[in-house]
Amino acid sequence: MDHGIMLPNVSCKTDITISSKYRDKLRAIAEKIIDTCNDGQCYTHIDYESIPSRESVIEINNKLREILFPGYFSKEKLDPMNLRYSLGQITSILFDMLSVQIGNSIRHDCLRYGKSCTECEEQGYQITLELLDTIPSIRKVLATDVQATYDGDPAAKSYDEIIFSYPGIFAIAIYRVAHKLFDLGVPLLPRIMTEYAHTITGIDIHPGADIGESFVIDHGTGVVIGETTIIGKNVRIYQGVTLGALSLPRNAGERLRGKKRHPTIGNEVIIYSGATILGGNAVIGDRSVIGGNVWITEPVPPDTRVIIENPRLIYK
To answer: pTM of the entire structure?
Structure first.
C-alpha cells in the first residue's frame, strides 16, 4: 500500500557523492590561488586604499554623453521645462562620481609609488570642478566634429544620426573629456575612459594626444592614435589608420616615456584607410592627402599627395 513515502533516488545520491569527492579537492586549490597573491611576480592590488572602479568609469562615460549631447542619451525626455533641473541633477551626480574616482586615482599613484601627500580628496573636488567648468567649451568643439562629419559624409542623413550612431563621435567625445583630465595631471582614469571607448568602437585614442577641432574619424574600426600624436584642424582619417610609434628596444620604455614618439598631422589633411604613419619625425604638412595602405616614417611637405603605385591585376 502506497502511504506517499518517497523512496531515495539512487541517481541523486550518486551525484552528491561525486560532487563531494571533487569539492573536497577544492580547498587545496583555493589555498594555492590565495598563496600566489603574495607572489611578487604576480600582479595584484590587495591593499586598504581604493583604486578607480572601471564600472564607475563606464557610468561616468554614459553620464558625460548625457551632458555633452543633452536630450540624446537621457532615459527621460528632455524639454525646455525640465532642462535646468535635469542637467543640474546630472552635473551634481557627475561631480560626486568624478571627484571620488579622481581622488582614488591620485591616491593610488601616491601610495603605490611612494609620492608625498597631495591632498587627494581635495584635489578630486578641485579637478572635477575644473573639468565640469570646461564642458561648454568641449561641447562647442564637439559641435565642429559633428558638423565636419556631416559635411563630408553623403551617407549621413542628419546630425541626429551622427550623434546617435557614429562610433567616431563617441570615441572623440570621450577622448576630449579624458584629454582634459590628462592635461590636469590625473593618472590612470583618463586611460580607463578612452580604453572603454576603444572596446565599444574599435577606435584607440590615447588621452595624451592633442587633436584640433573639426576632426573626423570615418567608419573608424582599427584606428590607433598614440600618446604624443598632434593633429591639426579639419583632419579626416579613415578606418585602419595607425598614427603610432616606431618599434622600440625592450629597455627603451623609461628612456622615451613622455618624449615625442608619434606623428604630427597638419591642418586639412586626409588620411585614407590602412595608412601607417610612425614616429616623431613623421610630420605631415597642411592640406596633404595620404593614400590607403602607405607606410610613412619621414616628413611629408604641405600640399603633397602620397599614394602607392597602382598594382598590376592578373586575371586567370
So the answer is: 0.86
